[in-house]
Amino acid sequence: MSDRPLLGCIADDFTGATDLANNLVREGMRTLQTIGVPEGGLDEPADAIVVALKSRTIPAAEAVAQSLQALHWLRERGVRQVYFKVCSTFDSTPQGNIGPVTEALLDALGSDFTIACPAFPANQRSVFRGHLFVGDLLLSDSGMRHHPLTPMTDANLVRVLQAQTRRRVGLVPWEVVARGPAAIRERFEAMRAQGIGIAIVDAIADEDLRRIGPALDGMPLVTAGSGIAIGLPQNWRARGLLGEAGGADTLPPATGARAIVSGSCSVATNAQVRDFLARGGTACAIDPLALAQGRDLAAEALATLVPRLGERPVLAYATAEPQQVLAVQQQLGVERAGALVEQALARIAAGLVESGVRQLIVAGGETSGAVVQALGVRQLAIGPQIDPGVPWTAARTPRAGGDWLHLALKSGNFGGTDFFSDAFDRLCS
Ligand code: ADP
Description:
This protein is of the alpha/beta class. The protein folds into two domains: 7-238, 3-Layer(aba) Sandwich (Rossmann fold), CATH 3.40.50.10840; 257-428, Molybdenum Cofactor Biosythetic Enzyme, Chain A, CATH 3.40.980. The chain contains 15 helices and 18 strands. It has helices at residues 14-26, 60-76, 98-109, 157-162, 174-178, 181-193, 206-215, 233-238, 267-278, 288-292, 297-305, 322-332, 334-354, 365-375, 419-425; strands spanning 7-11, 31-35, 48-52, 81-85, 114-117, 125-128, 131-134, 137-138, 168-172, 196-201, 221-224, 257-262, 283-285, 314-317, 357-363, 379-387, 390-396, 404-410. It has a 15-stranded mixed beta sheet, sandwiched between helices. It has a three-stranded antiparallel beta sheet with strand order 6-7-8, with no helix packed on it. Helix 12 (322-332) crosses helix 13 (334-354) and helix 13 crosses helix 14 (365-375). It starts with 6 loop residues before the first strand and ends with a helix. Adenosine-5'-diphosphate is lined by residues 263-266, 269, 288, 318, 320, 325, 328-329, 337-338, 341-342, 364-367, 411-412.
């Protein structure tokens, strides 16, 4: 086993980072996710590190600068390979940021060739003839064509990426991938000789990802969605640098009281909150209009919930049905409503942890960002998967004294109806 991390990843958003970390853990790599580029070193030893940035839609020059800063920090940790994690729907604009960041990372690593592959067939993302499919639909026919920030109106990834980079972009077609790692490697070399710098790679089944993996052995930079990651750990395992799969998701034992903080208004979260209430759990609703009138609902919620803390989880929620949310947003404005709720829930989460909660579920992507910030969490050790894409994690926070805090950060539509009870059952104490 290596005492230094093997793989250093730079993810262009937070939930994408967790998705990648989750895949690496499932393939047997102990993985630590950081929120932004840390100032110091690693809290825990790890085989892989995923630095979560928020660089997907910021100006390209800023995305490049942040990614290079992350690269510098990862190289100081001694990583042997760098992974630039992009969205599995290749979310980007004609200006970037996939092309400019990939190019800058290649330059900084002194490398002239990499792949760009968002494929993850098990999750409905496949690439054929360089065209990205979302389920049965071409990317350009999927809902992504209406995305507010990064509308994807062209499914031809060679063309999409070529518009963002000065390096030449080529394609490794599926027939080559199907012949296996040696054929893929040979094709990489041929493309390189022709002056191609970035290869889109076809993959229509997860077996393709495992064929591509060995061909990436020793490649300084890999640009990909989270799927390609499942083929990489075997390279280090083959060299004796990584133990057998299993056990990488072990977290410290869970202790303390249980709570849930929910600011997501998605369909799945609404069902989860209803299910929690139907089981008779202790809960406090947070009304954005009362917050806007100056009521200190965070203090009120803590006064109700703290005396009930224990093994049965308590819940604080602003989760509401779409028509209620719309009515609130019409009165307060979307941003003010969001900010008021996020602030209140973050204060509640911090107060709960200070009062003994050591197992916390947060529902909502933006809500998770606000809670993690309020808790001062900078690094997350990734543990067992609860539902696809959502693992338990463990973190240090000044609010929990010297204890570990177990955190599950669930974005919007993830998780089954009984997620708020099922998740705790999966945590070993
Ligand atoms: P999701 O992952 O489901 O998108 P987020 O936490 O990312 O959830 O986003 C939900 C947003 O809605 C947050 O900014 C939150 O503060 C806000 N919000 C939550 N409840 C309400 C509500 N009842 N009325 C208006 N806005 C709300």
